[in-house]
Amino acid sequence: MQLLALVDVTEDALQIWFEREAVAGRHQAARTLMMFRGFMRWCAARPEHRKQIDRDAGRAPAILENLPPNTKRTDCIEAAQLPGWWQAVEHPNNRTASVYLKALVLTGARKEELAGLTWVHVDFQWRKLTIADKVGQT
User: Fold this and answer.
1) Are 133 and 111 in contact (CB under 8 A)?
2) I need a labelling partner for 33 at 20 to 30 A (CA). Which of 7, 70, 118, 132 fits?
3) pTM summary value
4) Distance separating alpha carbons of residues 135 and 138, to the nearest angstrom
5) Residue, of 75 and 100, whose pLDDT is higher
């Protein structure tokens, strides 16, 4: 990994970085680039950092044209589909799986977050669950 000073982050440097990272995963490289562009905007808003960056480096056509398309997710249950889905998971062979799937829908938790739930995280008095999020907080 090569470290660059802010003044050395140019369109060419970002293009080289993106092409190298995209080999491992285009979408992850694109997400990282978008976060870095946010950081550059933050720097541009601070007088003490404004002169150290090339804010337009992250907006260069050579970079933006190579980003994967930003597509909206379509893998969700529509409101009209929910009663049928609920009925289908009401009677599976595995009661644990049924409750798990319902809890995912009711809480909006990620599957790993809910799978890590233990009885310590269930408060029956206040009818509350404490669920860890993907970065280790609750």
Assistant:
1) no
2) 132
3) 0.51
4) 9
5) 100
